[in-house]
Amino acid sequence: MTNQHAMTEQRILAVCRSNWEYRGIDDGSVREMLDELSAHLEDATAAGRTPRDVVGDDVRKFAASWARARAPFTHRLLRAAARACAAIGGLILVMCLFRWSTERTVGGDDAAFWAVVVAVTVVWELRRGSLGTVRHAAVALVTAVAVALLTRWLGGGEALVTVPLWAAPVLFLPELSYAAADARRRKKGTASDTAR
Fold first, then answer.
1. Under DSSP, is residue 69 helix (H, G, I), strand (E, B) or coil?
2. Which strand (E) or helix (H) includes residue 106?
3. CB 3.0–4.6 Å: which of 93, 151, 159, 177 could bond 112 by disulfide?
4. How far apart are CA 90 and CA 169, in angstroms?
5. How would DSSP label each residue in 112-143?
6. What does pTM read for this prediction?
7. What SS3 string covers 13-57?
8. Burial of 141 (0-12, 13-18, 19+ CB in 10 A)
9. Which 8-state DSSP code applies to residue 165?
């Protein structure tokens, strides 16, 4: 176990960065949080206090509480729901293009597939958002295919509903707003890094 009393500012920043990235906080926010924490630590040193006076006895607990304040559960849940909608929209689009159709008939196996994609997306985003889009998509896809095949094997392939092609872009809209906000944050972070 690390000796919390002897932690340097660099070690504290490294532990906090690791914790925040693990929790899925975006890169721009992590940079802002690290800059703010670094300023607090420098101010404490200038005032004759130790880094421990800023972060307390448990750096991981400090990082976790700050992460919860910065990205509350409801915010992460909404972000995960937006990603899940985008995943379903992407699946509808691919299925329609694959079959050269303007609509997709959804059966029990499809519904199970989509439900698993949504569940994996939401759980992964809430637990650990730093897996990355490609690896996350692979995990969701492999899990969902297994469940869809099992559902079809158990006899759940009958038609439930028909989904039009135009539903796909509508499902992308919530994620697009988050993507635009992330791009602005990254641009702002890059501009502040080059200004130094």
1. helix
2. strand 103-107
3. 151
4. 8
5. HHHHHHHHHHHHHHHH-GGG-HHHHHHHHHHH
6. 0.53
7. HHHHHHHHHHCCCCHHHHHHHHHHHHHHHHHHHHCCCCHHHHHCC
8. middle
9. T
